[in-house]
Amino acid sequence: MHYLTSAEGITPDQLHGFFVGWPNPPSPETHLAILRRSAAVALAVDEANGQVVGFINALSDGVLSAFIPLLEVLPDYQGRGIGSELVQRLLAQLEDLYAVDLLCDAEVQPFYARLGMQPAQGMMLRRYARQAGDKPPASFKVHPLTPAQRPLAADWLVQRWGSERMVVHGQVYRPADLPGFAAVDGDQWLGLLTYHVAGDACEIVTLDTDRPNQGIGTALIEAARQAAQQAGCRRLWLITTNDNTAALRFYQQRGFTLAAVHRDAVTRARQIKPEIPQIGNDGIPMRDEIELELTLAPPLWPVS
């Protein structure tokens, strides 16, 4: 087991299976945002598959006090001392503070007592409609990427993909160098799509959003569709992996159809990019690339 005290380099694909029993759990993307915005974290990573199997986080004013809102170890990894190790590593990061508090059920108090904490009374307020951490509907605009925004695009991609490089269908891309569209609310980035045009086909290389289920991804796809038509493309297409059932659902709901299954393509891609995980979403082995496409009507105006 490997322990980290930073979420740097962690991707949403490594954060599946948490918030067991929550009726409205945060998504892996929201979970990653929680970790990145915390004052301190400790993570347990299974070195065999690269998955995060336990985490703890703290919020703090950095002067006097901290609060520990979340500690969880995946069910298959419980009983191995991982939770205790996470608490100890987090408390070590907070040792200069006067107060470190948390709320827990009475039956869990002996666990924390063994780690040096004392029972106390507390009060709480819960807004269960906000349990998933979703933000209010976004007000955003979509605009083409500019050269000045490419460093921002590179940072965005590294945070979500763990690298500036992508390998799909045997091709190595640096998406931040490609044309694309950003969805922004003022100075805040909410989503990014990058694409590549070759002949009469436009490939969506990356699509990510910080706020799912708010129309951002759909708006970015529409911007790409219009750009592809203006470029004279007859086909808008993309590659996803066999484990990404959410992406398969998302694109098919927006008119894309399955075009091909490239067996063992991800296995071959690891020869170029070894850091591609062996295990993907929901514990599914990542092996195959799935190609989806959307047929485009000819533009209603001449293409220069």
How do you describe this structure in short?
The chain is of the alpha+beta class and 304 residues long. Helices cover 22% and strands 29% of the residues. The protein is elongated and about 70 Å long.
Describe the overall structure.
The chain has 304 residues and is of the alpha+beta class. The protein has 2 domains: 129 residues, Gcn5-related N-acetyltransferase (GNAT) (Aminopeptidase); 155 residues, Aminopeptidase. Strands 6-9-10-11-12-14-13 form a 7-stranded mixed beta sheet, sandwiched between helices. A 5-stranded mixed beta sheet has the order 1-2-3-4-5, with helices on both faces. Strands 7-8 form a two-stranded antiparallel ribbon. The chain is built from 7 helices and 14 strands.
Considering the chains and any ligands shown, give keywords for the structure.
single chain, 304 residues, alpha+beta, Aminopeptidase, 2 domains, 7-stranded mixed sheet, 7 helices, 14 strands, disordered C terminus
Which architecture of the largest domain would the CATH scheme give at its second level? 3-Layer(aba) Sandwich
**CATH superfamily label of the largest domain:** Gcn5-related N-acetyltransferase (GNAT)
In the residues, how many domains can be counted? 2
- Percent helix range: 10-25%
The biggest sheet amounts to: 7 strands, mixed
Low-confidence stretches: 300-304
Tell me the total number of β-strands: 14
Trace the largest sheet across and list its strands: 6-9-10-11-12-14-13
Through-space gap between termini: 58 Å
**CATH topology heading of the largest domain:** Aminopeptidase
Number of helices: 7
The arrangement of helices and strands along the chain is EHEEEHEHEHEEEEEHEHEHE
In CATH's first tier, which class of the largest domain applies? Alpha Beta
Mean pLDDT: 90
What percent strand? Answer: 25-35%
Class by SSE composition:
alpha+beta
What would you report as the Rg, rounded to the nearest angstrom? 22 Å
Molecular shape: elongated
